[in-house]
Amino acid sequence: MTNNLFFQRDSFITEVYKGAKKNKNIFFLSADFGAPALDQFRENLKKQFLHLGICEQNMVDFACGLALEKKKVFIYAMAPFLALRCLEQHKTATCLMNLNVCSIVTGIGLSYANSGPTHYSTEDFASLRSLPNCNIYTCSDSETAKMVAKETLRVKTPTFVRLDRKASKNLTTKVSKKDIIKGFRYLRKTKNSKNLILSQGTIIERPLAALDGIKINKSKQFDLIDLIRAKPFPKELKKNLSKYNSIITIDEQTSTGSLESLIKENISSKKNIIPMSLPDQFIFENMGRDNLLDKYGLSVSKIKKNILKIIKS
Amino acid sequence: MKGLLFYKKKSYEIRKILLEKFFLLKEGHPGSVFSILDVLLVLYYEKFVRINKNKTLDDVIMSKGHATVGQYPILYDLGVIADKDWKNWGKNQNTSLKMFGNNNISGIKTATGSLGHGIGFGTGIAYANQKKNKKNVYVIISEGELYEGSTWEALILLGSLKLRNVTIILDVNNNIILGDPRNLLNLGNMRKKIQSFDIFTDECNGHDFLALNKKLLKHKKINKPTCLIVNTVKGKGFNFMENKSNWHYWNPMSINQYNDAIEKLRIKYDQ
Question: Which residues of A touch B102 (CB under 8 A)?
Fold first, then answer.
């Protein structure tokens, strides 16, 4: 923590550590990836921590072997490698065998903006959600990461938890246990609102800023939903979606298979959907995450424009 | 050890039953199944895999998943696979048995078929069962799996963890789908390579029941992971299939050819 900025990974791992202290059947595996919070785990729970080397594929298979023997296993690595590099391992092992393995997919979206496309993780959501039998959580702040960690200690099926790299402030709307269980939370909610912005991860700070920066007539208000669990898709959210006429989806992923697709799969009637995501291309510029997001279509001003477009329609 | 006559009889009976199933199913991987079958017979009937109340206490991870069906008739014979599952298999009736194994089948621990997963699975299972005699894990891989990078990742970890309850059985039949690997992409000295990961490695004839039993007993006593390279014949037992790469998969066969194959098998094992 620095100046009220919190790292999601530290919040998440701290909760897992607390759980592992009470339960010797919890194992934590790392593919040469660390975190300050992991140091106490490594130091104090030596028998429950294994460094697997830089080999994400074998880490998944090994974790599944442990899980077949009734262990609860957390595996930890950078998002592009733990999601895409071993996607087939997740299919054949984690998901097909429906095992108690939680993959901590760290550094989603353009978290590693200065490292370039090999380190971006802008396809992991589409890839992982194509796998049956899994839960997918995305954390928008460290408090959510902490609450999701508590939930992953409880569930016994394959789980992917998508964490951001950056330290950020907790959002002012505090997440509750109920939000985690139902899979989403409202960050803005107005009675009878017909307009919705739906997002996941820390990019949600941008629609929050956009909504705070526009004066909107009461009859045209927007709700804002933080999608915490995309899979299984929250039943209550599916029901709630029917009341909106216009939906803006905002996702720090490439367009294919991102939130836009997910929402379209979960609505029955025709809606006005404005998808906002990254373009279907590799990005090579090195100008920092915020500037890249601005340049590639996810700026606060672009979100405002889309909000105004709906208001005027 | 059970006598050679026992193994000769079992070897014949199970080959006959499996050919019948392949003939009914019109698909499968007979060449690979028959190359590893004699190893499976020793593992199960010599109780390297212990069975109690129809449950296996030790695990065979068939990493070369296309040969999993070789386990089915043995597990059925030993009471692990249910009558209904076995009898319905190949008759378009409800059964849990599949051409590739998965963890929903009695006695089959893992989903395999995609190559290169087995040693990783086996290492995880063995790590959780390190206590002496708690569980032994036999991971059967093919030489073709040595082309998969994840196999080598897993070997590094296995050797490093020094798990004494893991035995890799490497089936070398010198046939992959497109031919002899030595002429395609040579794997070099497999024994030397695996040994270099601090895994005790030796080899024997994979159809010699006495040698297999002796080696597996020896490996049980070694205080680190082991690998037994078994030199086998692809399609062993059927002259038309032996050492033929194209019998990796099932090939069309008339009823007369099938009857002829069964008769020749009987003669071969009667000798």
Answer: 96-97
Q: Where are the alpha helices (DSSP H) in chain A?
A: 8-22, 36-44, 56-68, 79-80, 87-89, 124-128, 142-154, 177-182, 205-212, 235-241, 259-265, 289-295, 300-312
Q: Please name the residue that has the structure tokens 């194959």.
A: B261
Distances (CA, A) of B237 to A71, A207, B24: 42, 69, 19
Chain B residues with CB under 8 Å of a chain A CB are 102-103, 109-114, 116-117, 119-129, 149-150, 153-154, 156-157
Q: Answer whether A81 touches B (CB < 8 Å).
A: no
This prediction has a pTM of 0.96
What's the structural domain count of chain B? 1
Q: Which domain holds residue B93?
A: 4-268
pLDDT tens-place string over residues A179-190:
999 999 999 999
Token reading at B57: 């206490």
Q: Is the backbone of residue A307 left (phi > 0), alpha (psi -120 to 50) or beta?
A: alpha
Domain segments of chain A: what residues? 5-169, 177-312
Residues of A in contact with B121 (CB under 8 A): 61-62, 64-65, 68, 93
Query: What ipTM does the predicted assembly reach?
Result: 0.96
Q: Which architecture does CATH list for A5-169? A: 3-Layer(aba) Sandwich (3.40)
Q: Is the bond preceding residue B73 a cis peptide, omega within 30 degrees? A: no
Contact assignment for A62 to B156 by CB distance below 8 Å:
no
